[in-house]
Each structure stands twice: as C-alpha cells, then as structure tokens.
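TA notes, week 10

Several of you asked for a full example with nothing omitted. So below is the full record: structure tokens for the whole chain, then the designed sequence directly under it. When grading your own attempts, check the secondary structure regions first.
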C-alpha cells in the first residue's frame, strides 16, 4: 500500500482528508524504522511533527509524579498517532515512546505540513482537540 493510501484509509485520526491533502502529507513524511526497545521520542523533547505508526507497535510511558519512575500507559499499533499535542499546544513531548517490536515503522509528518492541513479541515481540528483532551484525562496523576 502506498503512503498516501495508508494515511487516507488506515489512520482514523486523518479520516476525511482529500486525496490531495493525504498525498501532500505523504510526500513530506519521513520514514524511520526502530528496533524493539529503541526510544522513538523522549519525554520533554520537542517533536519533529505528527508521528504515525505504520507497522509494529510502540509503548507510551509517562511519569505519574515528579521523581517517580516512568509507567506504561498505552500501546499503539498501526494507524495510531502521537505528537499532536506538542504541535497544537506550545510545549514538549509529555511521554516517552518506545518501539515494542522489531521493524517498527514510523511516518513523521512535519509540523508545518500538518498545521497547514489542520487549518483547512475543521473536522480534523475537532478530532485533534478531542484526542488531546482524552489523553490529558487519562494521564496518571
């Protein structure tokens, strides 16, 4: 499957994109492969863009309290996204993301490309804010 088709048909977060919008994101996306246990994104760092799990799985780790060890709060598979919060709201990554399978493939859509599509699509904006609110409500305290 081509990257455009994957983004348009397999990523529910991006549902409703036109073929042109999906193609625009696809041609700008960077593809990176990770081994099991490798860190994809460190908590507290700035993100390069919207990350989409294309193959494999990643685990999401956060700190419930300052000074406490990281705890796993989620596992994301193909079609899942992360990094949207620190693109939309000023800040850094609120979680550490680690590959849980060998040959985990991540597509990273540059921030500016994602923001441009977001500005054109009210449904995508609503979905982005809804997922951010949901993740904040599930965050350990």
């Amino acid at each position: 499957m081509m990257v455009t088709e994957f983004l348009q048909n397999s990523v529910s977060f991006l549902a409703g994109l036109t073929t042109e919008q999906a193609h625009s994101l696809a041609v700008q996306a960077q593809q990176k492969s990770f081994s099991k246990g490798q860190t994809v994104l460190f908590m507290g760092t700035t993100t390069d863009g919207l990350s989409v799990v294309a193959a494999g799985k990643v685990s999401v780790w956060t700190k419930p309290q300052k000074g406490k060890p990281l705890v796993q709060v989620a596992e994301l598979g193909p079609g899942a996204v992360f990094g949207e919060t620190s693109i939309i709201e000023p800040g850094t990554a609120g979680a550490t993301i680690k590959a849980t399978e060998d040959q985990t493939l991540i597509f990273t859509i540059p921030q500016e490309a994602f923001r441009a599509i977001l500005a054109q699509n009210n449904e995508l904006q609503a979905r982005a804010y809804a997922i951010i609110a949901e993740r904040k409500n599930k965050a350990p305290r």
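The chain has a mean pLDDT of 90. Use that as a sanity check on your answer.
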